[in-house]
Amino acid sequence: xxxxxxxxxxxxxxxxxQRHGISAxxxxxxxxxxxxxxxMTRIPEIVVFGLMQPVMFVLLFSFVMGGAIxxxxxxxxxxxxxxxxxxxxxxxxxxxxxxxASAGVAEDMTKxxxxxxxxxxxxxxAVLVGRTVADLVQTAFTLLVLAMVALLVGWRIHEGVxxxxxxFALLLLLGYAFSWIGALIGLSxxxxxxxxxxxxxxxxxxxxxxxxxxxxxxxxxxxxxxxxWNPFSATVQACxxxxxxxVGPVDHAWPMQHASLVSVGWSLIIMAVFSWxxxxxxxxxxx
Amino acid sequence: MAPAIQxxxxxxxxxxxxxLDGVSLDVPEGTVLGLxxxxxxxxxxxxxxxxxxxxxxxxxAVVAGVDVLKHPNQVRSLIGLSGQYxxxxxxxxxxxxxxxxxxxxxxxxxxxxxxxxxxLEWFNLSEAMDRTAKxxxxxxxxxxxxxxxxxxxxxxxxxxxxxxxxxxxxxxxLWGVIETLVDQGTTLLLTxxxxxxxxxxxxxxxxxxxxxxxxxxxxxxxxxQIGGERVEVVVHQREDVSEALAALAPYAKGDPxxxxxTRKITVPVSGGAKVLADVIRELDARSIEIDxxxxxxxxxxxxxxxxxxxxxxxxQNGDRNTDETGRxxxxxxxxxxxx
Lengths: 287, 339
Hints:
heterodimer; B: alpha/beta; Rossmann fold; Alpha-Beta Plaits; 6-stranded mixed β-sheet; 4-stranded antiparallel β-sheet; 11 helices; 14 strands
C-alpha cells in the first residue's frame, strides 16, 4: 500500500448518479446478475453437471424405458415415446433450476458478501432478482443443449419454429417462476447443502404425478385431478401441443384443453406469490 | 460540531442474550473512536446497527446527520463498511469485485471502472487484479475488502476488526492506510481486540463489555484512570540491588517489587519524567551501574484488565458462544477465530 498515491485518491470524487424506482431496480439487478453469470463461467462444473442430468434422462428414458412404456393408442416403440417424453424432460429441466437458485441464495446468505450488499445503497430485491435472472440465462442455455441432444435421438417439432419458440418461452417462464420458489427455500434453510436437497426433494412427486412421463389416464382415478391441475402438467401439455408431439388420444380434462393459458396463469401466480414472499423474507432474514 | 456518529441507548437482544444493553456513543467529525472489547462484548452488533444491517430493539442512531432507522438507504450511500471477514466474491477478480461495488453505489460503469483501478493501485493489488479473489492471500482479501469500503470515499467509515488474523507486516500496512484516511478527514469507528491498535489509531476509546460502554476517554485518560506510574530499573550487578533500593526509597509511593534473577526493581512513583531524571542522578551519585531504566505507564491491557476484571487474551479462544455478528447463527461458516 503505497502512500504516494494517497493524495491523488482524494481528487475527483465520483458523484453517484441517482436512479429511482424501476430503473434503479433493473440496474442493480443487472449488476448482480452479471456477477452471478461471471461466477458460472468461473465454476463451469455447475453448468456442466446441470446439463448432464437431463441429458442422461433423455438417453435413459428413450433407450432403456421407451420400448417398454406404451402410450395408449400407439405401439410401444422408443421413437413414439421419445416424442412424448421430450416435453416432460424439458419441463423437468427448467424446474430443476430451483435447486440452483436455492443453493445459490443460501450460499450468498452464509457468506459475508450479503453484508456488503446490504450495506450498499442498492435496491433490496436486486440480490434475488439478479440471482433468478442469472439462473434463467443458465436454464436457457441448458434447454438449448438439451434440444440438440433430443434432435439427435429422434425428437422432431411438427408445428413450425414459431410455435416451438412459444413452447420454449412457456418453459422459461415456468423455470423463472420456480426459481423464486428456490430463492425462498434458499432463504429458509440453514446451509447451501440443505438448500440443494430441500430444493430438489419435492420436485420428484411434482414432476412424476403429471403427464411428463406417463399419460395421466393410466393413473388411479383419485390421483388424476391432482395430476391434471399440476402446474407442471399444463406446461408439458402446452409444449406437446406447440411442438406437435401429441402422441395417443387427446386428454379432455379442462386444464389439458387450455394448457397454454393454464401454464402462463400458474407461472404468473407462482412468480407473484414467491417473489413477494422471498423479498419479504430477505428483508427481514438478517435483521 | 455535530458528531458524525451518534448512538443513544441502543438495545438489542437475541433470545435471552442481551447483546446491546444501552450502548451510547458519539464520534466527532474527523476523529477515530476505537471500540475495544473482548469477543461477545457487543462491538460487532453495535457496528451492524450503525451500518443499517441490524435494527435495534430500542434506541436511536444518527450517522452523518441522517437517522439510521428512518433513512437507512440514505445512510448507506454515506458510509463504508469493512468487516471482520472479507466480504468479497471469491469467484470474481479483484477488479470485478470493486467495479461491482461501485456500480451498486450507483456510479456509472465508466466511473466504477476508473475508481476500481485507482483503488487497486493504492492497495498494491494491480498485479493481482485480474485473478479471482479465491487465489488471494488473507492479507490481500482484507485489502480488497477495505478498498471496496472506500469506493465512494465515504465521509464515515466503520471498520470491524480490520486487522484480525493479519500478520504484522500487513497489519502495519493497513494501519498506514487507515491513518491516511483519517488525515483526509474521514470519521472512523474502529472495533478491535488489540489494545495496541486502539492506542495507535484512535483519538478516543470506548471500552465495551457485556453490551455496555464501561469506560470512555483517550488512551492517556484511561491509563491515568487506573494510575500507577512506575520506575523500572535493571542494575548491572546483583550486589547493587540493595543500594539501588535505598536510592529509590525517597521517591517510592508504595512497596518496591524486586526480581532478584533479572536484577529488576519496580517502584511506584508519581511525578513523571522529572522523577525519572532525579532517580538517574541519584543512582549516578551512588555510582550504581545500570543496564536499563524507564518510566512505565500502564498499558491499555492493564486498563482493560482492571475495568473488566478479565483479560482480552483469555477470551480470544472463544469461551463465549455469543454470536457477536448479531445474526442468527444459522449455517455461518467459520471465518477465523471470531465468527
